[in-house]
Amino acid sequence: MSFENDMPQAGPSTGSGAVIHADRLNMMASTSGAGATTSALPTKKKNLSEKQKARNKKNLKKRKKIKQAQKAAAPKNKEWKPDPVLEALKKATAQTADQDSESDSDSEKEDTGLKGKELTKEEKDAKEAKEQRKQEKREKREKREERRERRRAEREKAAKGAVEPAVIGDDADVSDDDEEDGEAEAMDEDEKDERDENASASEAEGGTTQPVESSPPPLQAFPLPRAAPAPDAAVLARQGLPKGLEDAVFVDQSLRIPIDELKFQVSGNQESQGLSERIRKRLGEIDVEEFFAVQAAILPHLLPLRLVPLPYSNMSDYLISAPTGSGKTLAYAVPIVEILSQRVVTRLRALIVLPTRDLVVQVRETLEALAKGTGLNIGSVTGQHSFAQEQHQLIADMETPLLGGSSKLDILIATPGRLMDHLASTPNFTLQHLRFLVIDEADRLLNQSFQNWLAQVLAYTRPPDKPIERTFERQPYDHVAPAWTEAFGLIDMSAEWNDPVPVTCQKLLFSATLTRDPSKVAALALNDPKYFIVQSSLLPSEPTSIGEQFAFPSSLTEKMLILPAALKPLNLIHLIHHSDYHVNSALVFTKSVESALRLVKLLEFFEDAYVLGGGGGKRVQVRGYTGEMKSGERKKLLADFTDGKVNLIVCSDLIARGMDLPSVSQVVSYDVPLDMRKYVHRVGRTARAGREGTAWTMIEKQEALHFKGMMNAAGHLKSIRKVKVKEEDLAGYRESYDIAMRRLKEHFGRDA
Ligand SMILES: Nc1ncnc2c1ncn2[C@@H]1O[C@H](COP(=O)(O)OP(=O)(O)OP(=O)(O)O)[C@@H](O)[C@H]1O
């Protein structure tokens, strides 16, 4: 049952839904005896002009159409939600309109004033003025309607053939731009008026102007990656970071001490002592005549340490932060060789952990050079050789179970992964005799959570809390470290007057970028740590003692090129070939191995075309350096680079840490380093051991903000000079570059 059946029809159908609906309402109201409020409706409708009615009808049609279109566009899924971007845009448009209306309403507010009751006359005037404005607008609208009607009639006359009136209306709706514009304008004005009224009404109520659709907040800029601020001292203390880190000793980078003048005090001895004759000779053989700052600062603390510590002696751990190439390796290698060379029997007394195989090889070479003639056995485990080969190198007797182990080595240099494998699977491999545990490139190693290596290695340096259940007996020649005797049940220390035997292992941590992460430092279980920071005397020496340190070699020059990505290869070519820059003994860093290999090919093709095409000069030799290369190949490449047979090595960050190639005079970051540490370690491949060096960073325009922000945060932006290469300076390379690019496409196309 519907109203249409029950209710009498009110007059002839006009075909206008809105009017019929209003009439029905009226009839319903009168039958149900509704009061004056509802009966006012038809009266209002009757007052509407014919034009107005037609316009309303048209608006209604239009709204219906929009609704239908929206329905059609919406996905059939019930959970459909409006597109947030479209909604935001809609709101933004509404906001602009609101702003207009707000400014109107502001002026209105001034007019209507809310300026107190004494202004009632002014208010009246303002109202009248407003009414007048409205009246003018209405008149204008009517005139516009008339004009439109006239135009439509003319068009109809001109049109030939019979056309249905309804279709005319539809066509007019869709295609008559003029009319639509006019209508839209008129509607806008209506809406604006309405909004003006709303705004002034809400203001008059004393509230702030709240448009129906609140404007969306402006879009936030995408946040740039940035390092967390250095933790507060109180936070560090709560997290268990020992106080020693706050009382760091700052050492000026320029400090130098001739080898013969280095003196240190051995406890219980009145006279200060110098280095042994033998080690001085060895140092002379590797061209070390004076100690650099990090060595001069730390050696007087480490050299007095004894092979077997005296009871109750202070067993501090040491943390050393010093710039790249400042000589950290010798800072631990010299004392280890000096102290261990006093040993009588071989035990594993020094373990040096490094993040990569290449570094292990490099450090082993330094130690072997220093230990010549001492009888110390030095070995390494990196996974480069078979596990059995390594075991054979490590352990003298793997058959007889021995509580004190059976080491063939005095000093072991290892990567963490392989070290863990041997701790787990090599019989008689023990760390109980360790006197020094060195963690070089400490920040990188602390970031490697591989098998939780750090916690495990530290656990192997300490006797377990619970007694170990032995399944075999001690052999006559089996030597157990004193701190382990209780754990093995060899002595009973439970009596009240017995002090536990201390562990003799001291930890030495080295890095150019020592970690700021308190939890990582806490994981080291440091014992009374001493913290040394080597940096330029120009840098502040107080609050930076907490948090990450970025110190740079003072002989380093840094430059940056901000350029479009497409011009990077040409700019690199310019740096290589232009006599002002002469980048010809350089490491070039890319973001990945793939980009490194592509760049190598491009430069090779370019050199072919340029040199053959009469570009002049010697062909620049470029090679890639990747982790997939066999160690022999790598060694050969590095040797060729040192001999000048190779001019540029292109690589990813693989080589960036610790590698010591004295012949690197320039470093080019072809792809921008993503964080400050990477930057420090990359640029640190040049300007080593006090030599001059230049670091170039190529920054794509869209990366400039991030890069500069990163440098600024580290207080380093001012040290980098901006260089601009003019487009015309690159013109001479264009032809050869185009040839190289064509060949590159062919090359990779063929490979693909
Ligand atoms: N006192 C010295 N006199 C002359 N050369 C030195 C001295 N100390 C170190 N060197 C040389 O300086 C170079 C850099 O030393 P080393 O590799 O130990 O630096 P590093 O501080 O460990 O750098 P990185 O942080 O990059 O690993 C090496 O070639 C080394 O032989």
From TrEMBL:
<dbReference type="GO" id="GO:0005524">
    <property type="term" value="F:ATP binding"/>
</dbReference>
<dbReference type="Pfam" id="PF00270">
    <property type="entry name" value="DEAD"/>
</dbReference>
<dbReference type="InterPro" id="IPR027417">
    <property type="entry name" value="P-loop_NTPase"/>
</dbReference>
<dbReference type="InterPro" id="IPR011545">
    <property type="entry name" value="DEAD/DEAH_box_helicase_dom"/>
</dbReference>
<feature type="compositionally biased region" description="Basic residues">
    <location>
        <begin position="54"/>
        <end position="68"/>
    </location>
</feature>
<comment type="function">
    <text>RNA helicase.</text>
</comment>
<feature type="compositionally biased region" description="Basic and acidic residues">
    <location>
        <begin position="76"/>
        <end position="90"/>
    </location>
</feature>
<feature type="region of interest" description="Disordered">
    <location>
        <begin position="1"/>
        <end position="20"/>
    </location>
</feature>
<dbReference type="GO" id="GO:0003724">
    <property type="term" value="F:RNA helicase activity"/>
</dbReference>
<dbReference type="InterPro" id="IPR014001">
    <property type="entry name" value="Helicase_ATP-bd"/>
</dbReference>
<dbReference type="GO" id="GO:0016787">
    <property type="term" value="F:hydrolase activity"/>
</dbReference>
<protein>
    <recommendedName>
        <fullName>ATP-dependent RNA helicase</fullName>
        <ecNumber>3.6.4.13</ecNumber>
    </recommendedName>
</protein>
<feature type="compositionally biased region" description="Acidic residues">
    <location>
        <begin position="99"/>
        <end position="109"/>
    </location>
</feature>
<keyword id="KW-0067">ATP-binding</keyword>
<feature type="compositionally biased region" description="Low complexity">
    <location>
        <begin position="30"/>
        <end position="40"/>
    </location>
</feature>
<keyword id="KW-0378">Hydrolase</keyword>
<dbReference type="Pfam" id="PF00271">
    <property type="entry name" value="Helicase_C"/>
</dbReference>
<feature type="compositionally biased region" description="Basic and acidic residues">
    <location>
        <begin position="110"/>
        <end position="159"/>
    </location>
</feature>
<keyword id="KW-0347">Helicase</keyword>
<dbReference type="InterPro" id="IPR000629">
    <property type="entry name" value="RNA-helicase_DEAD-box_CS"/>
</dbReference>
<feature type="region of interest" description="Disordered">
    <location>
        <begin position="30"/>
        <end position="226"/>
    </location>
</feature>
<dbReference type="GO" id="GO:0003723">
    <property type="term" value="F:RNA binding"/>
</dbReference>
<comment type="similarity">
    <text>Belongs to the DEAD box helicase family.</text>
</comment>
<keyword id="KW-0694">RNA-binding</keyword>
<feature type="compositionally biased region" description="Acidic residues">
    <location>
        <begin position="170"/>
        <end position="196"/>
    </location>
</feature>
<dbReference type="InterPro" id="IPR001650">
    <property type="entry name" value="Helicase_C-like"/>
</dbReference>
<keyword id="KW-0547">Nucleotide-binding</keyword>
